[in-house]
Amino acid sequence: MRAAALTLAALAAAALAGCGPAEFGEDFDEGWEEGGASVLWEADVGAVGRRQAMHQLGGTVCLVNEEGVILLIDAATGAVESPALINFDGPVRASGGCTRSKAVTVDGAGAVQAHDWRNPARDWRKQLDGNLIGAPLQVANTLLAILNDGTVVAYAMFTGDELWRLELNESEFRYDGKFKPRVEEYHVAFGTPEGTLYYIDTIDGFIVWEGRLFNERDPDPTANLSLIAGPDVAAGVACAAAYNGAAGCFGADGRPLWQKDLSSAGTVRIVDGHVHLVSASGTLLALATRDGRERWRTAGASSHRSPMVAARGDLLVVENGFSGLSFFEAATGELAGGIELDGEIIDYIETGDGLLVLGSDGVLSRIAID
Protein backbone atom coordinates (compact mmCIF):
# COMPACT_ATOMS: atom_id res chain seq x y z
CA MET A 1 0.00 0.00 0.00
CA ARG A 2 1.39 3.39 -0.93
CA ALA A 3 1.83 6.22 1.53
CA ALA A 4 -0.92 8.83 1.61
CA ALA A 5 -0.31 12.47 0.92
CA LEU A 6 -1.12 14.02 4.32
CA THR A 7 1.22 13.15 7.18
CA LEU A 8 0.23 12.22 10.71
CA ALA A 9 1.98 15.33 12.01
CA ALA A 10 -0.41 17.48 10.00
CA LEU A 11 -3.38 15.62 11.42
CA ALA A 12 -2.18 16.02 14.99
CA ALA A 13 -1.38 19.70 14.51
CA ALA A 14 -4.83 20.37 13.12
CA ALA A 15 -6.45 18.46 15.96
CA LEU A 16 -4.49 20.44 18.57
CA ALA A 17 -5.28 23.77 16.95
CA GLY A 18 -8.52 23.91 18.90
CA CYS A 19 -10.63 24.96 15.96
CA GLY A 20 -13.03 22.02 15.97
CA PRO A 21 -13.04 19.03 13.64
CA ALA A 22 -10.42 19.41 10.97
CA GLU A 23 -11.41 18.79 7.36
CA PHE A 24 -8.79 17.40 5.00
CA GLY A 25 -9.47 17.15 1.31
CA GLU A 26 -6.15 15.77 0.01
CA ASP A 27 -5.32 13.14 2.60
CA PHE A 28 -5.58 10.09 0.39
CA ASP A 29 -4.23 8.64 -2.82
CA GLU A 30 -6.47 8.02 -5.80
CA GLY A 31 -7.19 4.45 -6.76
CA TRP A 32 -5.43 1.91 -8.91
CA GLU A 33 -6.31 -1.51 -10.29
CA GLU A 34 -4.69 -4.92 -10.04
CA GLY A 35 -5.74 -8.57 -10.49
CA GLY A 36 -9.52 -8.28 -10.37
CA ALA A 37 -9.59 -5.55 -7.72
CA SER A 38 -9.45 -1.78 -7.55
CA VAL A 39 -7.96 0.24 -4.70
CA LEU A 40 -10.38 3.15 -4.55
CA TRP A 41 -8.32 5.15 -2.08
CA GLU A 42 -5.56 4.91 0.52
CA ALA A 43 -5.27 7.04 3.67
CA ASP A 44 -2.36 7.44 6.08
CA VAL A 45 -3.56 6.78 9.64
CA GLY A 46 -0.19 6.76 11.40
CA ALA A 47 1.35 4.08 13.58
CA VAL A 48 -0.92 1.13 14.37
CA GLY A 49 -0.40 -2.11 16.26
CA ARG A 50 -2.08 -5.50 16.29
CA ARG A 51 -4.70 -4.30 18.79
CA GLN A 52 -5.92 -1.29 16.86
CA ALA A 53 -9.43 -2.09 15.63
CA MET A 54 -11.66 -0.06 13.32
CA HIS A 55 -15.31 0.65 14.01
CA GLN A 56 -17.79 1.65 11.32
CA LEU A 57 -20.50 4.23 11.97
CA GLY A 58 -22.63 4.28 8.84
CA GLY A 59 -20.41 5.82 6.17
CA THR A 60 -17.63 6.73 8.61
CA VAL A 61 -14.77 4.59 9.88
CA CYS A 62 -13.41 5.45 13.34
CA LEU A 63 -9.89 4.60 14.50
CA VAL A 64 -7.46 5.71 17.22
CA ASN A 65 -3.82 5.16 16.33
CA GLU A 66 -0.93 4.42 18.70
CA GLU A 67 -0.13 8.12 19.13
CA GLY A 68 -3.65 8.81 20.39
CA VAL A 69 -4.93 10.65 17.32
CA ILE A 70 -8.66 10.07 16.81
CA LEU A 71 -9.36 9.61 13.10
CA LEU A 72 -12.70 9.69 11.30
CA ILE A 73 -12.42 8.48 7.71
CA ASP A 74 -15.12 8.82 5.06
CA ALA A 75 -15.58 5.27 3.77
CA ALA A 76 -16.63 6.50 0.33
CA THR A 77 -13.83 8.98 -0.36
CA GLY A 78 -11.05 8.34 2.16
CA ALA A 79 -11.22 11.92 3.41
CA VAL A 80 -9.82 12.13 6.95
CA GLU A 81 -11.08 14.24 9.82
CA SER A 82 -9.19 14.40 13.12
CA PRO A 83 -11.39 15.88 15.87
CA ALA A 84 -8.96 15.37 18.76
CA LEU A 85 -5.62 14.16 20.03
CA ILE A 86 -5.93 12.19 23.26
CA ASN A 87 -3.70 13.71 25.93
CA PHE A 88 -2.06 11.05 28.09
CA ASP A 89 1.38 9.57 28.65
CA GLY A 90 2.53 6.59 26.63
CA PRO A 91 1.23 4.92 23.48
CA VAL A 92 -2.28 3.60 22.99
CA ARG A 93 -2.12 -0.07 23.91
CA ALA A 94 -5.36 -0.95 22.11
CA SER A 95 -8.34 0.82 20.61
CA GLY A 96 -11.78 -0.11 19.36
CA GLY A 97 -15.30 1.23 19.59
CA CYS A 98 -16.74 4.64 18.70
CA THR A 99 -19.88 6.75 18.87
CA ARG A 100 -20.52 10.06 17.13
CA SER A 101 -18.47 11.79 19.83
CA LYS A 102 -16.56 9.09 21.72
CA ALA A 103 -13.58 6.87 20.99
CA VAL A 104 -12.33 4.02 23.17
CA THR A 105 -8.73 3.16 23.99
CA VAL A 106 -6.76 1.06 26.47
CA ASP A 107 -3.72 2.71 28.05
CA GLY A 108 -0.42 1.26 29.24
CA ALA A 109 -1.79 0.80 32.76
CA GLY A 110 -4.49 -1.54 31.44
CA ALA A 111 -7.41 0.85 31.85
CA VAL A 112 -10.18 1.18 29.27
CA GLN A 113 -11.07 4.79 28.52
CA ALA A 114 -13.76 6.56 26.52
CA HIS A 115 -12.78 9.98 25.20
CA ASP A 116 -15.57 12.43 24.33
CA TRP A 117 -14.08 15.01 21.99
CA ARG A 118 -17.20 17.19 22.12
CA ASN A 119 -17.61 17.19 25.90
CA PRO A 120 -14.53 15.99 27.84
CA ALA A 121 -16.59 16.07 31.05
CA ARG A 122 -18.23 12.90 29.75
CA ASP A 123 -14.96 11.00 29.54
CA TRP A 124 -14.72 7.84 31.64
CA ARG A 125 -11.98 5.45 32.67
CA LYS A 126 -12.20 1.94 34.13
CA GLN A 127 -9.26 -0.06 35.39
CA LEU A 128 -9.38 -3.64 34.09
CA ASP A 129 -8.71 -6.54 36.47
CA GLY A 130 -6.66 -8.44 33.89
CA ASN A 131 -5.00 -8.06 30.51
CA LEU A 132 -7.24 -7.29 27.58
CA ILE A 133 -7.33 -9.81 24.75
CA GLY A 134 -7.35 -8.14 21.36
CA ALA A 135 -9.18 -4.82 21.17
CA PRO A 136 -12.25 -3.50 23.00
CA LEU A 137 -15.36 -4.72 21.20
CA GLN A 138 -18.43 -2.55 20.67
CA VAL A 139 -21.86 -4.12 20.17
CA ALA A 140 -24.50 -1.40 19.73
CA ASN A 141 -24.13 0.80 22.86
CA THR A 142 -22.29 -1.84 24.88
CA LEU A 143 -18.51 -2.11 25.14
CA LEU A 144 -17.03 -5.54 25.85
CA ALA A 145 -13.63 -6.22 27.39
CA ILE A 146 -12.50 -9.86 27.12
CA LEU A 147 -9.68 -10.52 29.60
CA ASN A 148 -6.92 -13.10 29.62
CA ASP A 149 -8.33 -14.86 32.71
CA GLY A 150 -11.60 -15.67 30.93
CA THR A 151 -13.57 -12.75 32.33
CA VAL A 152 -15.92 -10.78 30.08
CA VAL A 153 -16.94 -7.32 31.31
CA ALA A 154 -19.63 -5.17 29.67
CA TYR A 155 -19.72 -1.39 30.04
CA ALA A 156 -22.30 1.17 28.95
CA MET A 157 -20.61 3.00 26.09
CA PHE A 158 -21.88 6.44 27.11
CA THR A 159 -21.43 6.33 30.91
CA GLY A 160 -18.88 3.62 31.64
CA ASP A 161 -21.25 1.88 34.06
CA GLU A 162 -20.58 -1.83 34.41
CA LEU A 163 -23.60 -3.66 32.99
CA TRP A 164 -22.59 -7.24 33.70
CA ARG A 165 -19.61 -9.46 34.33
CA LEU A 166 -19.18 -13.04 33.20
CA GLU A 167 -16.59 -15.38 34.70
CA LEU A 168 -15.80 -18.18 32.26
CA ASN A 169 -14.21 -21.33 33.62
CA GLU A 170 -11.25 -21.24 31.27
CA SER A 171 -7.49 -21.40 31.30
CA GLU A 172 -5.55 -18.21 30.80
CA PHE A 173 -5.70 -16.79 27.28
CA ARG A 174 -2.44 -16.74 25.37
CA TYR A 175 -2.86 -14.02 22.82
CA ASP A 176 -0.89 -13.92 19.56
CA GLY A 177 -2.66 -11.19 17.63
CA LYS A 178 -5.38 -13.11 15.79
CA PHE A 179 -8.56 -12.72 17.81
CA LYS A 180 -11.63 -11.47 15.97
CA PRO A 181 -14.98 -12.20 17.64
CA ARG A 182 -18.02 -12.28 15.38
CA VAL A 183 -20.85 -9.88 16.19
CA GLU A 184 -24.40 -10.77 15.17
CA GLU A 185 -26.96 -8.13 16.19
CA TYR A 186 -26.92 -8.17 20.02
CA HIS A 187 -24.84 -11.33 20.28
CA VAL A 188 -21.16 -12.11 20.08
CA ALA A 189 -19.37 -15.37 19.27
CA PHE A 190 -15.79 -15.90 20.37
CA GLY A 191 -13.47 -18.73 21.34
CA THR A 192 -11.22 -19.46 24.29
CA PRO A 193 -7.81 -21.09 24.85
CA GLU A 194 -9.44 -24.44 25.57
CA GLY A 195 -11.23 -24.47 22.23
CA THR A 196 -14.65 -23.52 23.61
CA LEU A 197 -16.88 -21.43 21.38
CA TYR A 198 -19.27 -19.15 23.26
CA TYR A 199 -22.36 -17.42 21.90
CA ILE A 200 -23.37 -14.69 24.35
CA ASP A 201 -26.24 -12.21 24.58
CA THR A 202 -24.53 -8.85 25.01
CA ILE A 203 -27.57 -7.23 26.65
CA ASP A 204 -27.44 -9.30 29.84
CA GLY A 205 -24.38 -11.54 29.52
CA PHE A 206 -26.47 -14.69 29.20
CA ILE A 207 -24.61 -17.61 27.61
CA VAL A 208 -27.00 -18.70 24.87
CA TRP A 209 -24.85 -21.74 24.20
CA GLU A 210 -21.30 -23.02 24.29
CA GLY A 211 -19.58 -25.73 22.27
CA ARG A 212 -16.18 -27.36 22.46
CA LEU A 213 -13.70 -27.96 19.64
CA PHE A 214 -11.69 -30.98 20.75
CA ASN A 215 -8.70 -32.44 18.97
CA GLU A 216 -8.37 -36.17 19.73
CA ARG A 217 -4.65 -36.03 18.96
CA ASP A 218 -4.22 -33.32 21.59
CA PRO A 219 -6.10 -34.55 24.68
CA ASP A 220 -4.63 -31.73 26.76
CA PRO A 221 -5.82 -28.59 24.93
CA THR A 222 -3.99 -26.32 27.37
CA ALA A 223 -0.65 -27.80 26.28
CA ASN A 224 -0.76 -25.96 22.97
CA LEU A 225 -2.21 -22.66 21.89
CA SER A 226 -5.79 -23.47 20.90
CA LEU A 227 -7.45 -20.09 20.87
CA ILE A 228 -10.19 -19.69 18.26
CA ALA A 229 -9.17 -16.82 15.99
CA GLY A 230 -12.35 -15.78 14.22
CA PRO A 231 -15.62 -17.73 14.11
CA ASP A 232 -18.57 -17.04 11.84
CA VAL A 233 -22.33 -17.27 12.39
CA ALA A 234 -24.97 -17.62 9.67
CA ALA A 235 -28.46 -19.10 9.39
CA GLY A 236 -28.43 -20.50 12.91
CA VAL A 237 -25.07 -22.22 12.50
CA ALA A 238 -21.73 -21.21 14.04
CA CYS A 239 -18.39 -22.49 12.74
CA ALA A 240 -14.84 -22.03 13.95
CA ALA A 241 -11.28 -23.31 13.81
CA ALA A 242 -8.99 -23.54 16.84
CA TYR A 243 -5.22 -23.44 17.17
CA ASN A 244 -5.26 -27.02 18.44
CA GLY A 245 -6.13 -28.06 14.88
CA ALA A 246 -9.81 -28.80 15.39
CA ALA A 247 -12.52 -27.23 13.23
CA GLY A 248 -16.26 -27.69 13.23
CA CYS A 249 -19.76 -26.27 13.28
CA PHE A 250 -22.48 -26.01 15.91
CA GLY A 251 -26.26 -25.70 15.73
CA ALA A 252 -28.37 -22.93 17.26
CA ASP A 253 -28.39 -24.74 20.63
CA GLY A 254 -24.64 -25.34 20.68
CA ARG A 255 -25.02 -28.98 19.65
CA PRO A 256 -21.99 -30.12 17.60
CA LEU A 257 -22.92 -30.77 13.98
CA TRP A 258 -19.47 -32.09 13.07
CA GLN A 259 -15.79 -31.73 13.94
CA LYS A 260 -12.59 -32.54 12.08
CA ASP A 261 -8.87 -32.26 12.63
CA LEU A 262 -7.83 -29.90 9.84
CA SER A 263 -4.90 -28.16 11.53
CA SER A 264 -6.57 -24.86 10.70
CA ALA A 265 -6.00 -21.79 12.82
CA GLY A 266 -7.31 -18.81 10.89
CA THR A 267 -10.64 -17.06 10.65
CA VAL A 268 -13.48 -18.88 8.92
CA ARG A 269 -16.25 -17.59 6.68
CA ILE A 270 -19.66 -19.06 5.88
CA VAL A 271 -20.94 -18.52 2.33
CA ASP A 272 -23.83 -20.37 0.67
CA GLY A 273 -24.19 -23.01 3.39
CA HIS A 274 -20.48 -23.86 3.46
CA VAL A 275 -17.72 -22.86 5.85
CA HIS A 276 -14.43 -21.86 4.26
CA LEU A 277 -11.08 -22.14 6.03
CA VAL A 278 -7.39 -22.69 5.34
CA SER A 279 -5.56 -25.77 6.66
CA ALA A 280 -2.02 -25.75 8.04
CA SER A 281 -0.76 -26.95 4.65
CA GLY A 282 -2.23 -23.86 2.98
CA THR A 283 -5.21 -25.62 1.40
CA LEU A 284 -8.45 -23.65 1.17
CA LEU A 285 -11.43 -25.88 1.98
CA ALA A 286 -15.18 -25.55 1.50
CA LEU A 287 -17.15 -27.77 3.90
CA ALA A 288 -20.92 -28.06 4.30
CA THR A 289 -21.95 -26.43 7.56
CA ARG A 290 -24.50 -29.16 8.37
CA ASP A 291 -22.35 -32.26 7.99
CA GLY A 292 -18.78 -31.20 7.11
CA ARG A 293 -18.91 -32.78 3.66
CA GLU A 294 -16.18 -31.40 1.42
CA ARG A 295 -17.37 -29.36 -1.54
CA TRP A 296 -13.95 -28.53 -2.97
CA ARG A 297 -10.35 -27.85 -1.99
CA THR A 298 -7.68 -25.59 -3.48
CA ALA A 299 -4.06 -26.28 -2.58
CA GLY A 300 -1.50 -23.51 -2.10
CA ALA A 301 -4.06 -20.84 -1.25
CA SER A 302 -2.07 -19.37 1.63
CA SER A 303 1.21 -19.70 3.50
CA HIS A 304 0.02 -17.55 6.40
CA ARG A 305 -0.05 -19.25 9.81
CA SER A 306 -3.43 -17.77 10.71
CA PRO A 307 -4.94 -16.29 7.55
CA MET A 308 -7.90 -14.02 7.25
CA VAL A 309 -10.80 -15.45 5.24
CA ALA A 310 -13.42 -12.88 4.26
CA ALA A 311 -16.11 -12.68 1.59
CA ARG A 312 -17.48 -10.32 -1.01
CA GLY A 313 -20.63 -11.71 -2.56
CA ASP A 314 -19.73 -15.03 -4.16
CA LEU A 315 -15.97 -14.47 -3.82
CA LEU A 316 -13.70 -15.50 -0.95
CA VAL A 317 -10.88 -13.17 0.09
CA VAL A 318 -7.88 -14.95 1.61
CA GLU A 319 -4.74 -13.52 3.18
CA ASN A 320 -2.17 -15.40 1.11
CA GLY A 321 0.95 -14.96 3.23
CA PHE A 322 2.82 -13.17 0.45
CA SER A 323 1.83 -9.63 1.49
CA GLY A 324 -1.41 -9.76 -0.41
CA LEU A 325 -4.93 -11.03 -0.87
CA SER A 326 -6.14 -13.76 -3.21
CA PHE A 327 -9.72 -14.07 -4.49
CA PHE A 328 -11.43 -17.41 -5.05
CA GLU A 329 -14.81 -18.40 -6.45
CA ALA A 330 -16.91 -19.61 -3.51
CA ALA A 331 -18.74 -22.13 -5.71
CA THR A 332 -15.66 -23.82 -7.20
CA GLY A 333 -12.52 -22.69 -5.37
CA GLU A 334 -11.00 -21.40 -8.59
CA LEU A 335 -8.56 -18.51 -8.31
CA ALA A 336 -10.23 -15.33 -9.56
CA GLY A 337 -7.54 -12.71 -8.93
CA GLY A 338 -5.56 -11.00 -6.23
CA ILE A 339 -3.86 -7.86 -5.03
CA GLU A 340 -0.55 -7.07 -3.30
CA LEU A 341 -0.31 -5.08 -0.07
CA ASP A 342 2.74 -3.60 1.61
CA GLY A 343 1.92 -4.48 5.22
CA GLU A 344 0.43 -7.18 7.40
CA ILE A 345 -3.34 -6.95 7.83
CA ILE A 346 -4.15 -5.51 11.27
CA ASP A 347 -7.91 -5.29 10.87
CA TYR A 348 -10.53 -5.39 8.12
CA ILE A 349 -14.19 -4.58 7.55
CA GLU A 350 -16.24 -6.23 4.83
CA THR A 351 -18.14 -3.79 2.61
CA GLY A 352 -20.74 -4.29 -0.08
CA ASP A 353 -18.14 -4.18 -2.85
CA GLY A 354 -15.01 -5.40 -1.10
CA LEU A 355 -12.98 -4.61 2.01
CA LEU A 356 -11.60 -1.84 4.15
CA VAL A 357 -8.12 -3.05 5.11
CA LEU A 358 -5.92 -1.56 7.83
CA GLY A 359 -2.26 -2.42 7.26
CA SER A 360 0.68 -2.55 9.65
CA ASP A 361 2.31 0.16 7.53
CA GLY A 362 -0.31 2.62 8.81
CA VAL A 363 -2.29 2.76 5.58
CA LEU A 364 -6.04 2.22 5.39
CA SER A 365 -7.22 1.03 1.96
CA ARG A 366 -10.64 0.77 0.40
CA ILE A 367 -10.51 -2.23 -1.96
CA ALA A 368 -13.29 -2.92 -4.45
CA ILE A 369 -13.33 -6.48 -5.77
CA ASP A 370 -14.66 -6.94 -9.30
UniProtKB/TrEMBL annotation:
Keyword Chaperone (UniProt):
no
Domain of life (superkingdom): Bacteria
Q: Which SUPFAM superfamilies match?
A: Quinoprotein alcohol dehydrogenase-like
Q: Which residues form the Pyrrolo-quinoline quinone repeat domain?
A: 67-298
Q: Which PROSITE patterns match?
A: PROKAR_LIPOPROTEIN
Alphabetically sorted, this entry's keywords are: Signal
User: One short Pfam family name for this protein?
Assistant: PQQ_2
Q: Which residues form the signal peptide?
A: 1-17
Q: What is this protein called?
A: PQQ-binding-like beta-propeller repeat protein
Organism (species): Candidatus Amphirhobacter heronislandensis
